[in-house]
Amino acid sequence: MTPSLGQDKTNFGEDECPAGEGPGFIAKITICFLNRLFHFQTETNSKKIMSQKIGFVGVGRMGANMARRLQETGFVISAVFDVNEEAAKSLAKELNCTAATDLKAVTALSEIVITVVSDDKAMKKIFTGGLLTRAKGKLFINCATVTPAIHVWTEQKCEAKGASSLEACMASSITQARNGSLYLMCGGKPEVFERAKPILEKMSSALRYIGPAGQAAQVKALVNMVMNANTAALAEGLGLGAALSLDLTMLREVFSQTGARSGVLQTDGEDMQNREHSCFFSAAHAAKDSGIALKLAKDLNLNLPLAAATKKQYDRMIQLGLGELDKSGIAELTFKGRKGVIS
To answer: How many CB atoms lie within 10 A of CB 220?
Structure first.
């Protein structure tokens, strides 16, 4: 709607431009034009990226739920690939897309590829194993928790093929992947981040650009290092409380109202008490991620004794065959009478 001639309308919406004359009119009409141009470009870019086909490499607990989420929000999932062929076939049937038998097929069928693999070795294997075949112009969004150096290496490999790469490190779990409320920390070139943003926004409730390739992975390593140490400390506190015959429900409530409160108290405390360790973030992954942080510290000649002690506990879980339990399973090492406790 356009106001009548001469009407002073300073607060106009994106679909309204002022009419009139005088010194302020040119400034107002310029702002209006730029506002409408911005909204047009944003809408155009969003429609363009939603029309592009997305492939997934790695469709375990996280990857599969991310794919489901994106399809529900209007994106086209073109292909999925996993070393577990049955998992890929099952998800492909559910999403009505292709279960790719090799990495080349994922890239051929997709403009954008999201990778969610386990570690550095897996990242190198997929990016040297066919994923970059005819990859010019394509975008790779890499969500795995791997070392910062691998994200830098991946960006270089992609750019050498005329493709783009962005690290999108996740600080959330399976439930958040499914409902689109991940906390995402991104690293790479700013223009690549902007290109990926419409997708990332549908996957997350909080989205943060950290800096160049590798920096988001550094932040993610520190997030998980601190989380893992908090989890180990909570397991010791509750384990000692149990040995003292304290009411653990009461103890958790006291922790929650004092300096002992933490995010893991909310997510893992009751599970530790009840020995409910269904996996959302495995002990094996906790050990790996603490190891990434310790390697960063070692390269800087920095000693991190708490992080080192935490990693030893998670390594011990793996040795005892408990590595696929949730990280809350570290309580099995601290409660008297449980499997891993040394009396």
So the answer is: 28
d(CA 88, CA 13): 47
Q: How far is CA 150 from CA 103, 123, 215, 222, 280, in A?
A: 19, 8, 11, 16, 24
Q: Which H or E run includes 164?
A: strand 164-170
Burial of residue 159 (number of CB atoms within 10 Å: 0-12, 13-18, 19+): middle
Give whole-number Cα distances, 108 to 111, 113, 140, in Å.
8, 10, 13
Cross-strand partners of 115 = 57, 142
Q: What is the pLDDT of residues 202-229, one digit of tens each?
A: 999 999 999 999 999 999 999 999 999 9
290, 244 contact by CB (below 8 A)? no
Amino acid found at 119: D
Q: What pLDDT digit, counting tens, does each position of 105-156 carry?
A: 999 999 999 999 999 999 999 999 999 999 999 999 999 999 999 999 999 9
What residues contact 38, with CB distance under 8 A and at least 6 apart? none
Q: Could you tell me the two tokens for 31?
A: 């702002």
Measure the N-to-C terminal CA separation of the chain; round to a whole number of Å. Answer: 78
Q: Please give the domain boundaries of the chain with CATH numbers for all domains.
A: 1-50 (no CATH), 52-213 (3.40.50.720), 218-333 (1.10.1040.10)
> How far, in Å, CA of 238 to CA of 261, rounded?
13
What pLDDT was estimated at residue 339? 75
Give the integer Cα–Cα distance in Å for 143 and 119: 11
Distance CA 78, CA 49 (A): 14
Q: Which residues contact 162 (CB under 8 A, 6 or more apart)?
A: 135, 136, 137
SS (H, E, C) 103-128: HHHHHHCCCEEEECCCCHHHHHHHHC
Strand order in the sheet with 98-99: 98-99, 76-81, 53-57, 112-115, 139-142, 164-170, 182-187, 204-211
Given a cut of 70, is residue 343 above it in pLDDT?
Answer: no
| Residue 167 β-bridge partners | 142, 187
